[in-house]
Amino acid sequence: MRSRITQDAACWVIGLLALIFLVVMHLALPNTGGSGADLPQALLVWTTLLVLITGGAWILCHQRLQLTLCARLLAIAAVLLTLPLLWSPHPDWQLDALPRLAGLWAGLGFYLLLINCHFTDRQKQVMLWLIVTAALIQTVWSLAGMWCPSLLPEVAQNALRLNPGIGVGVFQQRNVTASFIATGAALLLWLLADSQYRLANPVRERLRQGAISAAIVVLYMTLTLIASRTGWLGGLLIWLWFTVVYWRKESSEEISSRGWVRLAPALGIGLGALLLKSGLLEALNAHDTSTADRIFILQQTWQMIKEHPLTGWGYGGFTWSFAHFLADRPVPLSRGMNALTHPHNELLFWWVEGGIVALAGTVLAMIAGGVLLLRQPRRYTLAVLGCLLPVLLHTQLEYPLYQSPVHWLLVMLLLSFADTPAADPSASRSVFKTSRFRLLPTLMAALACSGALLVAVTFWQGRYLTKFQASPEDYAGRVLTLTETGIGTERLRKDQVLSYIVRYQKSGNVEDLQQFSTLARRWLTTWTDADIYHNLINVEHYLGNEKLALQVADEAHRLYPEDPRFVL
To answer: How many CB atoms lie within 10 A of CB 251?
Structure first.
């Protein structure tokens, strides 16, 4: 029997998840593009998720938390992934890495909360349908963007105008949208194929199967039209996965549902191919350039790893390190990758920045998931793994967990479905041996509450950064008064640097240029930007710092050899 405390925590979690999946993640707010902390809707999702953790942990403060084997392994992995922060060589690099590590620990806290809520099968099904509904909303959003953009909010229309064919969905990135829709399709295949979700009433069951099959057709059609290779691979993989996992028919009633598992995706793909403006082969060929770029990125990242395999290059420094790794050669090699924030492979990302310790943490996290899902494989755990495949695949091709907090939430939520400790804390038998702590939920609540406040402040300050981009003269002074929260530091510092230029143009105060010079040089020790280099060179010349101006110009020329502004 579940305690009243556990029931209250479960209801709180489901209520806040409904708010995220049905409302918050779909809000289109004014922004200047980008992903992750650059998008205000992502910050709102994080704020809501941290409020969820705060409330849930506070409710559970009156009882001890249970830690499963998987949770323990994930906690050890999180510690290993955090340790390299200690030897990152630059304080600003460490600051830039903090949000990533904070998100890692927030995800672990969310996972601990989920496994201690002891959700009923009915509640788990409700959460599955919440995810499916969110995927369907994004499907309609994507189709509207392709066929009738005027139906979308003005913010979404602007994203599509800035990035035609790419700024799809509320995520404003077609691959992120595609992997989310593919996850929704995986859940529908599971709900259709598994007999535990069947209705007793035959008529209602046929209607349920028909509605799910139609939704699968629409989702696969949308995946085809989005023309995302990540979405295509994810969709094909889950189609094959659920076809194999649910191949054997247990009863004659399942013939229809299992048949639709095989047929509905094919119908969706065929319909999408017919509606494509270009053929499938042409859509594939359109990605040739990006494929070559990704191979190049992976090759160069591997070369970086071979130079520092044990210690890594330093947390938070990938952008600067990768750009200078290409530039500091006898013949500088740029290829327009001077602002790359991620090597498009999650395993390599942790390794290149954190060295062997971070690699060990990443491998241990994979082992934890493997032990949970594959140690005693059964259809339920294999189905959970199938639903995780689109996002897991995406992490090896790009960086969705940083572009979208919803994707990180999905991983933790679905993984927790397969990891349920004993519902009765006094029970002597459980799948995994458990430990119990009373202090842990209190600490979780305090940290999550603090995190929610920081993210909320970042969201509030972000409005002024967006306004500054549109009207620098009106908001430069306000931007200079904003306080760093540790989140979105790159954008805030850059806009503050530029604000000194704007203020100088109005005041003529040379001290503003001196401040610009100091802060711009500091900014360029962590990130790269051709315009910042150009402005800094001009300012140093104006201030009479010719030697420093030549040094900056030389560095800019190596980073941007094809930019005429930096020809020596």
So the answer is: 8
Distance CA 418, CA 414 (A): 7
Q: At what angle do helices 121-147 and 4-22 cross, to 10 degrees?
A: 10
| Number of helices followed by number of strands (H, E) in the chain | 23, 2
Residues 441-463 have a mean pLDDT of 95
> Can you tell me whether residue 3 is helix, strand or coil?
coil
**Other beta carbons less than 10 A from residue 399's beta carbon:** 21
Helices (H), 375-509: 379-395, 400-403, 405-417, 439-470, 472-480, 489-507
Distance of CA 388 to the CA centre of its chain: 14
Dihedral angle sign, alpha carbons of residues 399, 42, 160, 22: positive
pLDDT in tens, 6-65: 999 999 999 999 999 999 999 989 887 766 667 899 999 999 999 999 999 999 988 888
Query: What's the burial of 356, exposed, middle or buried (CB within 10 Å: 0-12/13-18/19+)?
Result: middle
What is d(CA 305, CA 296) in angstroms, rounded to the nearest whole number?
14
Predicted confidence band of residue 427 (pLDDT cuts 50, 70, 90) = very low
Q: Give the span between the Cα atoms of 473 and 293, in whole angstroms.
A: 38
* DSSP per residue, 91-150: HHHHHHHHHHHHHHHHHHHHHHHHHTS---HHHHHHHHHHHHHHHHHHHHHHHHHHH-GG
CA distance 247 to 404: 34
Q: List pLDDT tens digits, range 410-424.
A: 999 999 999 977 544
Neighbours of 255 (CB within 10 A): 10
Strands 435-437 and 65-67: antiparallel
| pLDDT(335) > 80 | no
| Higher-scoring residue by pLDDT: 20, 331 | 20
Q: What are phi and psi of 494, to 5 degrees?
A: -65, -45
Q: Give the relative orientation of helices 510-523 and 489-507 as an angle to the nearest 10 degrees.
A: 160
Distance CA 300, CA 255 (A): 50
Tokens of 374: 């594959």
Residue 424: per-residue pLDDT: 44
End-to-end Cα distance, the chain: 76
Separation in Å, CA 554 to CA 237, 328, 459, 525, 557: 48, 11, 37, 15, 5
Collapse the DSSP code of 28 into the 3-class scheme (helix H, G, I; strand E, B; otherwise coil) and give the result: coil
- Rounded (5°) CA angle 415-420-425: 150
Reading the block at residue 85, the tokens are 């922060």
Number of Cβ within a 10 Å radius of residue 281 = 8
Copy the structure tokens of residue 479: 């931007």
Do 565 and 541 meet the contact criterion of CB atoms below 8 Å apart?
no
CA distance 553 to 549: 6
Partners of residue 115 on adjacent β-strands: none
Note the pTM of the prediction, 2 decimals.
Answer: 0.94
User: Residue 311 and residue 320: Cα distance in Å, rounded?
Assistant: 17
